[in-house]
């Protein structure tokens, strides 16, 4: 059962919506802008409407597997957490694009909305605040997810949820290593810059 949940979640998470939306417009997002297939690069290269569609679809990839598990096994935070982690890994390392995917932010938000909804809302609020102040999507992600384990701890979710939140934060930071280097150098692009 655990293997099936992990595999199904990984497959759902692997659907590269940003890439598919780009290809429908005749654009390979991997070869333009930041090279990422997420909503930020879609907005930078294609447009706001397509970016919003990408964002919602990427969020749904994380939400659906965890939500389904919560219906079948309510309060099983371990199985829900595994579903969430594998959905995020599917997005980050999609086999449909030679295991090169996105940064995992939107999919992680989707997972959190189904898994620890209050912490998800706080994470989104922090992201919005930092993004409005800086106009840098990666910085907003790094700060909001750095605070995620703290948020989960303060809200007093079960220990499984705290472990899961820490793993999500680790994945986000590993996927943002190039962004962290650019931030330290002062060369990270703001949204709207090309």
Would you tell me the structural class of the helices and strands?
A: mainly alpha
Largest sheet: none
Beta content comes to under 5%
Low-confidence stretches: none
Q: SSE order in H/E notation? A: HHHHHHHHHHH
Mean pLDDT metric: 95
Q: Outline, from the CA principal axes?
A: globular
> What's the total count of β strands?
0
Structure description:
With 194 residues, the protein is mainly α. It has one domain (2-185). Helices cover 73% and strands 0% of the residues. The chain is built from eleven helices and no strands. The longest helix has 25 residues, at 48-72. It is globular and about 45 Å long.
Provide the descriptors you would attach to this structure in a database record.
single chain; 194 residues; mainly alpha; 73% helix
Short description:
With 194 residues, the protein is mostly helical. The protein has one domain (2-185).
List the helices and strands and how they pair.
Layout: H1 2-14, H2 17-24, H3 39-45, H4 48-72, H5 77-92, H6 105-115, H7 117-134, H8 137-146, H9 148-155, H10 159-175, H11 177-185
Helix pairs in contact: 1-4, 1-5, 3-4, 4-5, 4-6, 5-6, 5-10, 6-7, 7-8, 7-9, 8-10, 9-10
